[in-house]
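Morning F.,

Quick status update on the modeling queue. The single chain you submitted on Monday has been processed. Sequence for confirmation:
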Amino acid sequence: MTAAPGSPKGTAWETLAPWEKAAEWHAKAPHIADEVMALAREQACHQRQLELDHARHQRVLSTRIWITQLITLGLSIVNMVVIAILAWHSIDTGNFVPTLTMLGAGAGLTAGTYGVSRSIAGRGLSALDTKEDRQGTGA
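Structure tokens below.
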């Protein structure tokens, strides 16, 4: 930390509260203190804008993950309906064992696809949360 103008090193400068440091700076070098305060205000505005942009970005990503999960669920249901229709037709033609194989494989693949999509979405959300935690702690 830089000492105030005219303050010798090893003083209680480090223990002063920020507003006390600002008051001391302003008393000893008002032109520098005004510049420093202007820079601090500008930095605070910039930081706030970055936080707002980050929050908006997180909302957009969360919405996209949610939409992707809905699409995956819908396609999985459509896939199971198609498999059921094909199995029904196959049973009508007298092919019972191939029908069971088709139903089992189709249901397994559909459930696997849905599970993988949920896993990917979960990892995406947890990565977003982890990134927010790191930024929140200053790391």
